[in-house]
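P.,

For your records, the input lines for the assembly:
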Amino acid sequence: MVKAMTDAAAEKPGTTTQVLTSDTQEGMTYLESIPRRIVTLWLPLGLIMLILLFPFYWMALTSVKPNAQLIDMETYNPFWVVEPTLDHIKKLLFGTQYPRWLWNTMYVATAATFLSIFASVLAAYAIARLKFRGSQVVGATIFMAYLVPPSILFIPLASVIHFYGLFDSPLALILVYPTILIPFSTWLLMGYFKTIPFELEECALIDGASRWQILTKIILPLAVPGLISAFIFSFTLCWNEFIYALTLTTSVQNKTVPVAIVSELVDGDVYRWGSLMAGALVGSLPLVVLYAFFVEHYVSAMTGAVKE
Amino acid sequence: MSTVEETAEVSRSREPSLWSRLKTNRNWLAIWFMLPAAIFLILFLAWPLILGVWLSFTDARLARPGEFVGFENYEWLWDDSIFWLSVFNTLLYTIVASAIKFAVGLYLALLLNRHMPFKAIIRSVVLIPFIVPTVLSAIAFWWIYDAQFSIISWSLRQMGLIQQNINFLGDGNWARASLIFANIWRGVPFVAITLLAGLQTVSPSLYEAATLDGASAWQRFRYVTYPLLTPIIAVVMTFSVLFTFTDFQLIWAMTRGGPVNATHLMATLSYQRGILSGRLGEGAAIATAMIPFLLAAIMISWFGLQRRKWQHGEGND
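Structure tokens returned:
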């Protein structure tokens, strides 16, 4: 099983080149008439895109809408805003601990990502290249670890973290998140490492390089695209993580953005929606910006991890 | 390559020291390389997993170790109608959401695989719901589903389809449907983009050949696309089912299991009992009860992969 899966991961660069060629090919589209294309392609595609993007439009719109317009849907058209305001965002940034939560999220995500990538690079290299006794079993175990969901782990983890004396500290999250990230990035990096010709490594070995030198001077520079994929995808997963952060942090100043928005910003106030939406918007923006710069890496990370 | 090492050692004609053996023997090296990952996974994954099963047989509370109580927690759950309601909800949520996610995701993937202008941009835009943190988009959905100011109710009222606002999250069945919709909304991009990657590996010449043979669009899908896509469908759907089954964030951000437990999934119930009420043992028992379902999902993935091997031929493993 492991071999079949890792081989498929090694095929990945091949498939991306095929993607490129099929993008530029016209295929059999000349057989279709324009009205038919509108009905079978553009109409359903437009509808799906509209539904997929509407919540973000709504989020952005609400965060700049004055309160009066939020609750009065009769005199103003709710789909638009007149006299947009920055009050909600100002209230969020200066009236709450939002900057602190944003900083926590960033800090935890960055630290956990670096730790995980470090551990994953070493593990992936060992499994893919050292071919030690039992490497296939270890590979399969890591894949299984990928399938263990946080929802069944958070209760024992809470008591484990209590036991280690890390409860309610960012350090707890930094140490726990790698359990989600390591299986994923190890798997992804194994696929990349396998595409690097073995001859390069043999040459270096004959020249007297140690395994460590081979890894840092030959393998890593050649695996940069894979590293970027693993890096940004791990960062996104950390930012998105909710259940561990909810269970393991309790004090207001230690929370991450997703947890703080749900537990701190939600109060009985009718007028909370503006700042809630502003909070959601500001919390999503860093990831969306990152995504905009690295779209292809995201796609290859996602499909690579699933295709095994 | 091993011969290179051997000859190097022979030429030194000296027993290698323990230190150099630790540095060069591949089994020892492998242990050093695996160590960081192993420490994380053992301390924070394997150990809690075992501890969770153990906790489910105790009456532990937060920060207090419990006594072994045998199957008491499970017997308690067996007679608990709220637990069975959460099992029903979880299965309903998983089956309905996964089926629709698959159908819409596959349809979207087929659409995106067609030749069109701005293909790359459209494809990147589709993935945005997957990138934005779930809780944050769930908050947006919460506002869209608001009892008083819902934009959906408003639009339907303007069109004259309804007289009263729909109480999306206040009524049991509406709440279930609303959450399932939000889950589908978030999951479709993932399914679509991964299936699209699979579709792009199917050679266009196969479609051309099938068309020349007189195959209709449906036959091209049924006899060319679908068989070639089966392995990746198996894997994608396993992940999709796994993540839907263990979903927590979406529910917690929008309804917290309410109204009157109507939307409690096993994960949210386990959080409520285990962490909020502090009965770790009972919460752990609910979480442990999820494991058989997860194993079933993994078995499906396994057989999906077996089938792939069979399709690629015996020697092509």
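Two observations worth noting. DSSP finds 17 helices and no strands in chain A. The domain at 2-9+64-307 of chain A is CATH 1.10.3720.10 (MetI-like fold).

Regards
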